[in-house]
Structures are given as structure tokens and as C-alpha cells.
UniProtKB/TrEMBL annotation:
InterPro entries: AB_hydrolase_fold, Peptidase_S9_cat, Peptidase_S9B_N, Serine_Prot_S9B/DPPIV. Residues 147-491 form the Dipeptidylpeptidase IV N-terminal domain. Transmembrane segments: none annotated. This is Peptidase S9 prolyl oligopeptidase catalytic domain-containing protein. It comes from Populus trichocarpa. PANTHER family: DIPEPTIDYL PEPTIDASE 9, PROTEASE FAMILY S9B,C DIPEPTIDYL-PEPTIDASE IV-RELATED. Residues 578-777 form the Peptidase S9 prolyl oligopeptidase catalytic domain. GO terms for biological process: proteolysis.
């Protein structure tokens, strides 16, 4: 096999933004010399990171004057990234910040940071994030948090300045720059601190923390894992106050995880987590406000959690937002996920007022679309923008300062995803949405303020090209960066006009002839539509083997499944094309199929709400419908169809194998939730209700309830220190399999959590999975 030098241009620093395709990194014009070269697909390719084509810049931001675009980028195409800056005036790219000590890796971070990376699903190394320091001065600087401490790097400065050292025994957690750029807030030893850059002085703002039991400024586990709230403190808009949470987990029973693979015993070989199981109490969350100059804390009249009452209205602190005039807005969700309150706090007068209540069935989905309007610009000043699914699809609405809804900004059978920017002076709002189809995402512009005389106008699309568009707007709302990819196009980064969407210049492009892509002969999946039993349109993705090598169908078939809420598996994105396990199986002559069943994301509340109270029922039946469609099309054959999935997908794999034994012959179930009474409060109760309210649903939704019907072969895969889906789930299923006299296979990783991270473990896992399918499919 001819070797392909993927590193040919990696050591050359890119000097210009606009490069011709023949000298862009990752471009390769070498063609395979023979058939054997073109079809060789080592199993190690499945776990190589980054994926083919996913070396494009990430974490893109603009400098305060919009003259620079910064990003995280790896010149050597690894997971270890540095900060680069693109000068939009002269078209040059320069290294802005390279970590002095190599930056972050899995061996030099604290235990707290490792768990935060689990919550973030973060695998990046080197530099994983940065923030612009916004000052009124001409100098340009960024803040970069690393395991060694907090660095400040000025543009063109020869070396960065270590402003605040950190250590693994007393790590700096979640640092953020103040809006005015003069201070840095951070958490250390479970207390909130602030560093004044002007005087280089650090001050502790909170006191009374008790280890990991009572903490200040750190988001609790449920907030990080299930609510997509990673922060436990928030800067006021004028940089004078910080709102923060006090989390008290003292009344939550600890769930102990033993490190069975360690040679040592005792405290070093165990960890305790205050894990709130379905139906039990959540942690207590108080909300406080403190001045950046120190002094006493103002505790607001709000207590979330801490009770098992099913009708508790103040169960979850979902979001915190500051408005102008130091008005604080708390979004508070009830226990049953059916009511969300917007509570306004006047931190000076101490007044509390509920200004808006959202009630929704089957549940309320949290979002980050709350946007305060500026003071004194228009007659709608001091109001806010809100998003609601009251029509069945998430749309934007304008509200006044008292919370009264003044009318919709968007409407239709599609959903708004995120607000990208607001131009109040021009009366425009920019947002990403699914208006052009649920498999795509585009940037749109709409009128911000209602026109009482005319009907709502359709939004204007600003992005070009099918697929997914993730955008970052500049501060002056003149241009935007478009990160675009599709099934046929690896990620590329463009600078575009916010006026009409036209391309101004490419910032990063890569040719379709990516060496790994060519060498492995990857093919984008084919997107198809089928109908569920009730007539609902379902989208599927088909990875067909090459008929010139493997002959005509039917083929042995594997269904790659997730199927759970808040996730879309089938979309017009490059990530689907470089699903390396699917492509590996395809190279072995196996047809791979994916289907987004009812209950999955980005199709509206009715589509997602089919899951309510019944995980393992309609979602599994839709997957059966997909398999039956494959059989009717002559692509697959009953009895030669297997499944694989992870987490909720692991649950689905085991459930479908047990429920439909005459269609499916084998399954790999990774880190499965096997009984919902063993998972956490927020997620489980949102979709299932409380255990005592829905005993039938909990019983039917347990894999153990169906194992007596099992005929096919089952491989269970689980990390023994998984703190999210505990290994206990797999152990309970094994007990049920033994009791029912059903065979099973078990692959465990004593030192891994929810997903294996170590390279050797991941290769070993893929080898065992393939060997299992070879024997049983």
C-alpha cells in the first residue's frame, strides 16, 4: 500500500487566509495504485481523532473592533489546539497563543476538571477555550485557562503572562472575564473569587463552603449533565455584581463507585457522588448576589430542590439572566417539567415578582433564547425576547418589561434553534432555524418589532449551501463567520456579509480529496424517508456496501441506533459521512442503517412528545418499522439484522433485541440504562414522570421486563466507573439474564467512565465488537 503523507504541510505555518486548493492543508492528490490499497480499512481508523475533515478551526470569535477573527486550530491535525488570529485587513494568519507547557492533556488535570470534561463531552487537548479581554484600550488580549493557571496573552507580545497559578490540589474552576474586561471571576476550593487585573489583586467573595457538600459558584451535576447549564455564577452587565448558586447536597445519599481496576484500596480507589435517583430529592440550590468589591451576600428569596414533593414549583434553577439596571431574571422549572416561571429580582430593593409563566404539555424544553433589550433605544426598551413551543414548534416572541407578550417574531412548522444577534436600532433579529428542512440549519434575518398593520413577514435566509451552518456574528453586526458542512462537504469557514449573506472571503477550506477519506473510500449515506405506523414521516440514513465488491442485496445489516430525546442522528452533515464505525462495517460488506424515531430532536414538540411516559415502546416500534422497510426493499433479511448503540442507544439496542426476537439476531448494548428507576431525577421524570405516578411505564420501559423473550445474542459493554449511567444498570440486567437462563457476553473497562477515552481501550473495544458481529450476524 502506498503511504500517504498527511503531514506534508502540517509544519508550515499558514500565512494567508485565502489559500489555493493545491496548497491547502489536508489536500492530497495521490490516487491508490491498486485495488488492495483502496479497500484497506484498518479497524484503528474507527477511533482516530480528529475525524477525517474535522480539523477546521473551532471556538471562533471576533476582537472588540472586529479586525481579527480568532479560533482554536491544530496545525498538525491532532486534538491538541492553539489559538490563531486572522487579520481581516491584510489577510494574514498568525499564531496568537501556544501553551508554554504543551497545555492540557488527560494526565495534568484535576479530578474536578476531568468530571467537568465528562459533562461537556470534551476531548480536546492543548488549549480548549479562551476569552477576549474586552477593554477600551487599543491593545488586544485574550485570557486562556490551562492546568498551570490563567494566562493573559497580548497580541504581538513575545510571551504570555501567567496571571494566576493553579494546581491539581487547588484547581481554578470555570474562569470568566467580566464584561468590562477589568476582572476575572473563578471558583477555587468551592468558593467564588475575583481577580482585579488593574491592581493584580485577588479577593474571595464567598465563605462557608464545606468541601464538595456545600459549594459556591459551581453548577450541580444535574445542571451540567441534563439542563445544559454549565455555570454556577453570572456577571452583571455592568461588571459590578455576580449572581451565584449555593449548592447543598448534604441530604442526598452518596452513591459509591469503586475503582475495581486499581491496585490500591481505600479512599484512593473509590469516589462518592450525591446522585439524585428518580423519585428522590434533588440538591438544594440557593441564589445569592455579591458585589465584586466584597461585603455581605444578598440571598434572594428562592430555594430550589431539597424536597420529594411531586408538585414543587421551584424544583430546578434552569437559567439566570441579567437585564439592564441590575435586574436579575431567574428561570425556575417545576418538578413535573410542565411550568417554567420567569422571576424578576430587584437586587437593591429586594423585590421579587413573577413576570411570566410558561405552561406546556408534555414538557418544557429549556433554551438559551432569553435576550434582554437595551434601555432607551425604542419604545420596546427594557423588554426581552423569549422563545416558546406553545404552537408545537419553538418560535420567538417579543415581551415588554412587565412580561406581557406583544406578539410573535417568527411562526411556522419549523423551529428556531438559537438567537445569533439582535440589532435593536435597525429592528432586526438574526437566528438559526430549521425553516428549510429539519435535516439542515441556516441563519435567518427577521423583523424584531411587530407591525400591527401587516402580517408577519417570512424571514430572509442568509446562508448559502445545503447542510448545517453554525454562525458567529461580529460586534458591529456587519459580517458573520459561517462554519458550514454537509454530507458532501467537510467543514469550511467563511466570512460573509450580514446584509445579504454573500461570501466575502474564505477563512479555511479543505478539498474533498482528504487523504484518509480517499484512502478508505468513504461514501456519504443516502437519506431516505419512510412512514411510522401512524403515518409520521421518519428520516433514515443508508450506508450501502459496494455492489461491485459484495454483490447485490440483501446484505447482512446493522442498525446504528440512539433514538432518545434531544438528539438528532440523521442529518445533512459531514459528521454522518465520517461515522467511521458505519464506514468500517460498510467496507466489510455490511449494510448500516440509522433512523430517527419519534421522540428524537428537531422535529417539534408533538414528534418528540411521543416518548412521554413510554420509553422503549413507540421509539422501539419505529426502529422495527425501519427494519421491516429494509426487508421489503430487498436490502436486508430477517434474522440477519443486528443493532448497536450507546447510552440511550445501548438501552434501545437491548430493548429492541428482546422485544422483537424474530427480526433481530444480535445486539451490542453500550452503557445502557436498563431500568429507569436507576437513572437521575431530571431526565427520567421529564420523560417518564415520577415512579409512583407511572409504575406501568417504568415496568414496561425496563429491559429486564422483556428478557424472557430474548433469542438473539447480546454483548454488554460498560465502563465500571461510569458516574452517569452506573455500571449497576448492566449488573442488574445480567442478574435478570441469569435468572431467565439467557446467554450474554460482557465487555467491561474497569478504568473507564461513560465512554472509553484511552486509545488502547477504544481499539480493543472496536475489535471485540467486530468479532462479536462476525460470529453472530
Amino acid at each position: 500500500m502506498q503511504s500517504v503523507d498527511e503531514n506534508e504541510s502540517e509544519n508550515k505555518k499558514l500565512k494567508r487566509l485565502r489559500s489555493l486548493s493545491n496548497n491547502m492543508p489536508l489536500t492530497d492528490n495521490t490516487t491508490p495504485q491498486n485495488v488492495e490499497d483502496s479497500i484497506l480499512f484498518p479497524i484503528e481508523e474507527i477511533v482516530q481523532s480528529p475525524l477525517p475533515g474535522y480539523v477546521a478551526p473551532t471556538s471562533i470569535g471576533f476582537s472588540a473592533d472586529d479586525s481579527l477573527v480568532t479560533c482554536l486550530f491544530s496545525p498538525d491535525h491532532t486534538l491538541s489546539r492553539k489559538v490563531f488570529a486572522f487579520d481581516l485587513k491584510n489577510g494574514k494568519q498568525e499564531l496568537f497563543f501556544g501553551p508554554p507547557d504543551g497545555g492540557l492533556d488527560e494526565s495534568n488535570i484535576s479530578a474536578e476538571e476531568k468530571l467537568r470534561r465528562e459533562r461537556l463531552r470534551e476531548r480536546g487537548l492543548g488549549v480548549t477555550r479562551y476569552e477576549w479581554v474586552k477593554t477600551g484600550l487599543k491593545k488586544k488580549a485574550i485570557m486562556v485557562p490551562l492546568p498551570a493557571g490563567i494566562y493573559l496573552q497580548e497580541l504581538y507580545s513575545p510571551k504570555p503572562e501567567l496571571k494566576l497559578p493553579s494546581s491539581s490540589l487547588s484547581p481554578i474552576i470555570d474562569p470568566h472575564i467580566s464584561p468590562d474586561g477589568t476582572m476575572l471571576a473563578y471558583v477555587r476550593d468551592s468558593e467564588l473569587h475575583v481577580l482585579n487585573f488593574l491592581f493584580n489583586e485577588s479577593k474571595q467573595l464567598t465563605h462557608g463552603a464545606q468541601g464538595n457538600t456545600v459549594t459556591h459558584g459551581i453548577a450541580e451535576y444535574i445542571a451540567q449533565e441534563e439542563m445544559d447549564r454549565k455555570n454556577g455564577y453570572w456577571w452583571s452587565l455592568d461588571s459590578q455584581f455576580i449572581a451565584f448558586t449555593q449548592v447543598d447536597s448534604s441530604e442526598i445519599p452518596l452513591f459509591r463507585i469503586m475503582h475495581q481496576g486499581k491496585s490500591s484500596v481505600g479512599s484512593e480507589a473509590q469516589e462518592d457522588h450525591p446522585y439524585p435517583f428518580a423519585g428522590a430529592s434533588n440538591v438544594k440550590v440557593h441564589l445569592g448576589v455579591v458585589s465584586v468589591h466584597g461585603g455581605s451576600v444578598t440571598w434572594l428569596d428562592l430555594l430550589c430542590g431539597g424536597t420529594e414533593k411531586p408538585d414543587n414549583e421551584d424544583e430546578y434553577l434552569a437559567r439566570i439572566n441579567w437585564m439592564h439596571g441590575n435586574i436579575l431574571i431567574a428561570q425556575v422549572l417545576n418538578r413535573s417539567h410542565s411550568k417554567l416561571k420567569l422571576i424578576k429580582f430587584d437586587i437593591k430593593a429586594g423585590r421579587k415578582e413573577v413576570i411570566y409563566v410558561e405552561e406546556q404539555f408534555p414538557w418544557i424544553n429549556l433554551h438559551d433564547c432569553f435576550t434582554p433589550l437595551d434601555k432607551g433605544i425604542t419604545k420596546y426598551s427594557e423588554g426581552f425576547i423569549w422563545a416558546s413551543e406553545k404552537t408545537g414548534f419553538r418560535h420567538l416572541y417579543l415581551h415588554d418589561a412587565n412580561g406581557t407578550c406583544l406578539g410573535p417574531i417568527t411562526e411556522g412548522d419549523w423551529m428556531v434553534e438559537q438567537i445569533a444577534g439582535v440589532n435593536e436600532a435597525a429592528g432586526m433579529i438574526y437566528f438559526t432555524a430549521t425553516r428549510d428542512g429539519p435535516l439542515e440549519s441556516h441563519l435567518y434575518r427577521a423583523k424584531l418589532f411587530p407591525d400591527e398593520k401587516n402580517a408577519l413577514q417570512a424571514p430572509v435566509r442568509l446562508t448559502n449551501g445545503k447542510g448545517k451552518h453554525s454562525v458567529v456574528l461580529d460586534h458591529h453586526l456587519q459580517n458573520f463567520v459561517d462554519i458550514h458542512d454537509s454530507l458532501d462537504c467537510p467543514p469550511r469557514v467563511l466570512l460573509c456579509s450580514l446584509i445579504d449573506g454573500r461570501e466575502i472571503m474564505p477563512l479555511f477550506e479543505q478539498a474533498f480529496t482528504i487523504p484518509r477519506f480517499k484512502r478508505l473510500e468513504l461514501e456519504p449515506p443516502k437519506i431516505v424517508q419512510i412512514q411510522a405506523n401512524d403515518g409520521t414521516i421518519l428520516y433514515g440514513a443508508l450506508y450501502e456496501p459496494d455492489p461491485t465488491r459484495f454483490g447485490p442485496p440483501p446484505y447482512k445489516t446493522l442498525i446504528s441506533v440512539y433514538g432518545g430525546p434531544s438528539v438528532q442522528y440523521v442529518c445533512d452533515s459531514w459528521i454522518s459521512t465520517v461515522d467511521m464505525r458505519a464506514q468500517y462495517l460498510r467496507s466489510k460488506g455490511i449494510l448500516v442503517w440509522k433512523l430517527d424515531n419519534r421522540g428524537s430532536a428537531r422535529r417539534g414538540l408533538k414528534f418528540e412528545g411521543a416518548l412521554k411516559g413510554n420509553p422503549g415502546r413507540f421509539d422501539a416500534e419505529d426502529q422495527l418499522t425501519g427494519a421491516e422497510w429494509l426487508i421489503k426493499q430487498g436490502l436486508a433479511k430477517a434474522g440477519h439484522i443486528g443493532l448497536y448503540g450507546w447510552s440511550y442507544g445501548g438501552y434501545m439496542s437491548a430493548m429492541i433485541l428482546a422485544r422483537f426476537p424474530d427480526v433481530f439476531c444480535c445486539a451490542v448494548s453500550g452503557a445502557p440504562v436498563t431500568s429507569w428507576d436507576g437513572y437521575d431525577t431530571f431526565y427520567t421524570e421529564k420523560y417518564m414522570g415520577l415512579p409512583y405516578e407511572n409504575p406501568t411505564g417504568y415496568e414496561y420501559g425496563s429491559v429486564m421486563h422483556h428478557v424472557h423473550k430474548l433469542k438473539g445474542r447480546l454483548l454488554l459493554v460498560h465502563g465500571m466507573i461510569d458516574e452517569n449511567v452506573h455500571f449497576r444498570h448492566t449488573a442488574r440486567l445480567v442478574n435478570a439474564l441469569v435468572a431467565a437462563g439467557k446467554p450474554y457476553e460482557l465487555l467491561i473497562f474497569p478504568d473507564e467512565r461513560h465512554m472509553p477515552r484511552r486509545h488502547t481501550d477504544r481499539i480493543y473495544m472496536e475489535e471485540r465488537i467486530w468479532e462479536f458481529f462476525e460470529r453472530n450476524l
